[in-house]
Amino acid sequence: MSASANLTPETPAGVTIEDLHKSFGDNEVLKGISMRVEPGEVVCLIGASGSGKSTLLRCVNRLEEPNAGQITVGQHTATHPDVNLDAMRREIGMVFQQFNLFPHLSVLENCTVTPRKVLRASKDQAEADAMEQLEKVGLKHLSERRPDQLSGGQQQRVAIARALTMKPSLMLFDEPTSALDPETVGDVLAIMRQLAQAGMTMIVVTHEMGFAREVADRVVFMDQGVVVEEGSAAQVIGAPQQSRTQDFLRRVLNPLSEQ
Predict the structure, then answer these.
(1) Helix, strand, or coil (residue 7)
(2) H helices within 121-233, ranges in order?
(3) Which of 34, 133, 209, 224 has the greatest number of C-beta atoms within 10 Å?
(4) pTM of the full predicted structure?
(5) Whole-number percent of the chain with pLDDT over 90
(6) Cβ contact 176:152 at 8 Å
(7) How would residue 259 be classed by pLDDT, with cut points 50, 70 and 90?
């Protein structure tokens, strides 16, 4: 599965987040987040569960409605009341913890249903594009199988291929390896490395510190709804300055020491 120019988005999208707030009832999950992701940049969000990382990601494509603040994705102001959400979401691919594949459809059908409905692609074109993406994730030979006939890692690679059939300018990954067996994690991370090398803009919520060290242009550590520290992987993971970052990494990188 070598990198291919066909994986490179024609126009990678940048993302700007300004003073973003999100509450669920009385629980303020995001407390004024501001950050910028440059076109073609890979940013990894790290932090303990409940720190707001997934909520931040879901606000970017308006799966969650922010209470205040502004988000811009490429040419779209995501938080503007008149934004064309359908047009914006066509440029954003999202891969979740759970694979969210249609269980009654084959792998190929899972990858063609959205391009046919949203992009109005012909059946032949949609299938050709889907097979190209399935080949890139190493699953072209399983195109007629149903999701329940695949391993978790294979299902997640199908989910990535499905997102890529829409030719997105931005990919959002919400802990894409957290539901996988350890032996299948590497296959999914390899695909994500390939995308990063091809110039895809990516925001990745992850607990995979090795992946963040290797692939991320920047790492953002979040805790209790705020950005505590950000910088290169060498800075944030290798030499964190904030005590909260240091405590988190100590627990993640040396879990036995906490017992």
Answers:
(1) helix
(2) 123-136, 152-164, 182-197, 209-215, 233
(3) 133
(4) 0.90
(5) 78
(6) no
(7) very low
